[in-house]
Amino acid sequence: MEPMKPEEKARVLAENPQAEPGDLEEYERLLSRRFAMDPDIPASPEAIEAADSIEDRLAELHARLFPQKVPA
Amino acid sequence: MAAEPIIQVVRDGDASKASPFTICIIANPALEAPWKSGQFIGDSITDHRAEFDASVRYVVQALFGRLPNQAEQFLGDATIAPRIRVVSVFADGLDAEDATALVGQDAVSNLLVPRRTAFAPFLARFGLAADVAYAISRSETHTRASAWFTSDDDGRAGVAFSLDGVALSHRFWNLIPGTIAQHATSRSLTALHEFGHALSSYSNGSVLDLYVDSPRGLNNKRGRPIPPGFAVYNGIALAADATRDGLGYGSWQSYHCELNDPEFPAVMDNYWLAHDHVPEHCQHDRITRMFLLDRIRAKLGR
User: Fold this and answer.
1) C-alpha span between B245 and B247 (Å, rounded)
2) Interface A-B: count of C-beta contacts within 8 A
3) CB contact under 8 A, B208 and A4
4) Which pLDDT value is given to residue A4?
5) Which residue from A33, A20, A32 is spatially nearest to A61, judged by alpha carbons?
6) Domain range summary for chain B, segments of one domain joined by +
7) Chain A contact for B142, CB < 8 A?
8) Which of B145, B190, B209 sits opposite A32 (nearest CB)?
9) The pLDDT value given to residue B246
10) Cis peptide leading into B225, omega within 30 of 0?
């Protein structure tokens, strides 16, 4: 996954004072984590639950970091 | 109506092999928008041949160490470069549908996501098979590249290697090739960074992002304190990078392998943070470069 440029990170946080640097770090970590799991092998129920949990948390963080991009 | 596809052999590769190591670069015909929605729209890259051709040139330059100021030579190694086959595919006028959408637009980011299982059937239409494939998009909203690792065919042969005493294999063949979704405007080390992920393997060594607190993988370990040794790869002891080239690990549990150039971040780290603002000065860390080049040499020998 292409890393964010430092100026992009600064812009996101400046435009969204409700978001904290830790939110952005967690968001980036979870996005990257998505690609570290093979999506095409049969997963255990626990693994499916973990993947769903990552996506749910990503949606929360996306709404906090990029509220202007979340559909009304 | 679909025009005749334009298939260009950019580099011949090893003509003595029935299946030379092959990188395909494809103009993405359609986008799934959003990813996993089942809704498809055309990708305008197929209306912009010159932009696609520029992307092809850029990818080849980045992989073969020919960007201005590029320190990481990677596939430019004289024993490897002539043996790599590179093919571009430009097909316009195809319907936007499940079979032609090689890229999805992520709903929770500006990531372009490869629809990895669509690549091999799409390439097979043109008599092609890839080890690693790029889909180049001209999405209007999503510009950030991403990649899935290769799913190796672990039921077939390879070249054995060991990592910290564990027996693994640089497999010759894949079940699903390494796949990359990249925007037509991507530049600098992005194509090289994504290739590092895509060439690696879900079952025989994963090359992870080093700019986040990643899970354990080929190039990332976890734990504190950071030990002096990072790993033993094929009998070669490699040191850990105690300082992350000066960027620091903060509160992470991750730590990385020693760098080939400790003055700059690794290619799999955030290369935009190069202290001289020249990302092209970044090189792979030691284990990542050794692993990736060994993996290619194994596939070249199949």
Assistant:
1) 6
2) 74
3) no
4) 97
5) A20
6) 1-153+172-204, 207-291
7) no
8) B209
9) 85
10) yes
What is the C-alpha separation between B39 and B60, in angstroms, rounded? Answer: 32
Cα–Cα distance for residue pair B10/B12, rounded to 1 Å: 7
Whether A54 contacts chain B with CB within 8 A? no
Q: Are strands B6-11 and B22-27 parallel, antiparallel or unpaired?
A: unpaired
pLDDT score, position A43: 77
Cβ contact A36–B214 (<8 Å)? yes
Contacts of B263 (CB under 8 A, 6+ apart): B245, B275, B281
pLDDT digits (tens, 9 = 90+) for B133-187: 999 999 999 999 999 999 999 999 999 999 999 999 999 999 999 999 999 999 9
| Contact between B180 and B132 (Cβ < 8 Å) | yes
Q: Is A10 on the interface with B (CB under 8 A)?
A: no
pTM of the model: 0.97
Q: Quote the ipTM score.
A: 0.95
Q: Is B36 left (phi over 0), alpha (psi -120 to 50) or beta?
A: left
CB contacts of A28 in chain B (<8 Å) are 211-212
The answer to whether the beta carbons of residues B55 and B186 sit under 8 Å apart is yes
Do strands B229-233 and B254-257 pair parallel, antiparallel, or not at all (unpaired)? unpaired
By mean pLDDT, which of A46-60, B41-55, B221-235 is the weakest?
A46-60
Residues of chain A contacting residue B253, judged by C-beta atoms under 8 Å apart: none
Q: How far is CA B272 from CA A12, A26, A47, B268, B282, in A?
A: 17, 19, 33, 11, 9
Cα distances from A7 to residues A11, A12, B272, in angstroms, run 6, 9, 10
- Per-residue model confidence (pLDDT) at position B112: 98
The pairing of strands B101-105 and B30-32 is parallel
Q: How far apart (Å, rounded) are the C-alpha atoms in residues A21 and B232?
A: 35
Asked if A9 reaches chain B (Cβ–Cβ under 8 Å), the answer is no
pLDDT tens readout for residues B88-129: 999 999 999 999 999 999 999 999 999 999 999 999 999 999
How far apart, in Å, are the Cα atoms of B24 and each of A27, B120, B279?
Answer: 31, 10, 25
